Amino acid sequence: MAADRRTVKQAANTNQVAIKRINLAFQGGGSHGAFTWGVMDRLLEEEWLEFDGISGTSAGAMNAAVLACGWVRGGRQGAREALDRFWNSIAEAGKNSPMKPSWLDQMIHPYRMDYSPGYFFFDMMTRLFSPYELNPRGDNPLRPVLDHEIDFDLLRRPEAIPLYISATNVRTGKVKVFAKDELCTDALLASACLPFLFHAIEVKGEHYWDGGYMGNPALFPLIYASPSKDIMIVQINPLRRDKLPTSAREIMERVNEISFNSSLMREMRAVHFVTKLIDMGQLSGEQYKKLNIHIVEAQHEMVDLGASTKLNADIEFLLYLKKIGRDAADKWLSLHRDSVNVRSTIDLVETFF
């Protein structure tokens, strides 16, 4: 099916600019997923760039499903409009949240909630009580938003961009990848299910937590299932922090960042190992895929945000992240446009070793 979709698109663009095809990999990170909104808002303006598949985790999974649904409805513009609607719906759903930046936060950093009474109380309660005690009914504010914004029947059509949504099986500790016929609201909620905030999500008799523990995002579905050799990772979580964390909150935040980046680090090292063997002639380039890896990120801006902002759904903050994402994608395009389908644009050793 993917080959048929590719052939039709290429034929339609025979007399136009050459089409280049890539895979996308979206990290999760709560409200920070609005950065991916901005990245894709910019990339979708490029007529020469098309997508063979998307792997997403947590907020990245939701971005992937919303984008793919909008793509089926209305192509590039439909995808951009769908992402706009989704993130505005998130902001609308968060208007009544008690977690808002305090006056002190706004003086120190306008988007953080380190001194917010609402955030402090919420953070303390989740450390003392489980979500089964705090939220016996298992209500999830994201469910109605996803039900309204995503038509899963559209995602199963042949022309839809293939999606690979990761979650972590609570019982086995293994990664679960939901694709095609398995996609549903529960699969997306499972991918974003932080165990200290939400009840584990049950899908077909198994229970799942956030996919970030085992794949943030998982790259292997794209390597195995997609014909494209290019993977563009939209990276939200900082790999490096120069400041040593010393407070209890800073230490916990950094531990979580390292944990949620660990699976990506492992996969990138494996990609480098296989690439090196192919270059040395020890593996056949016909049997093994030599990947071109690209990363769109804004580490300088994201590293200053802090974990509390991942729960900030204020539209002003989401639009700020969208702008950062658009700027990062625009900068990447200006530097690396000609490298797509040709070479990697990231030094894997320098970045991941």
Poorly predicted regions are: 7-15
Give Rg in angstroms. 20 Å
The helix-and-strand class reads: alpha/beta
Kindly, what is the distance between the CA atoms of the first and last residues, rounded to a whole number of angstroms?
37 Å
Instruction: State the total count of DSSP E strands.
Output: 8
Q: Tell me, what's the shape?
A: globular
SS strand fraction = 5-15%
| Largest sheet report | 8 strands, mixed
Average pLDDT figure: 91
In short:
With 353 residues, the protein is α/β, with parallel strands linked by helices. Helix content is 47%, strand content 13%. Strands 1, 2, 3, 4, 5, 6, 7 and 8 form an eight-stranded mixed β-sheet that branches.
Task: Describe, in plain words, how this protein is organized in 3D.
- There is one protein chain.
- This protein has helices at residues 2-12, 34-43, 59-93, 103-108, 117-128, 131-134, 142-149, 152-155, 185-191, 220-225, 248-279, 299-302, 315-336, 348-352; strands at residues 20-26, 49-57, 163-169, 175-179, 201-203, 206-210, 230-234, 292-296.
- The protein is an alpha/beta fold and 353 residues long.
- β3 and β4 (175-179) form a beta hairpin.
- The two termini are 37 Å apart.
Which features would summarize this protein structure in a list?
8 strands, globular, eight-stranded mixed sheet, 353 residues, alpha/beta
What order do the helices and strands come in, and which of them pair?
Elements: H1 2-12, E1 20-26, H2 34-43, E2 49-57, H3 59-93, H4 103-108, H5 117-128, H6 131-134, H7 142-149, H8 152-155, E3 163-169, E4 175-179, H9 185-191, E5 201-203, E6 206-210, H10 220-225, E7 230-234, H11 248-279, E8 292-296, H12 299-302, H13 315-336, H14 348-352
Parallel strand pairs: 1-2, 1-7, 2-3, 7-8
Antiparallel strand pairs: 3-4, 3-6, 5-6
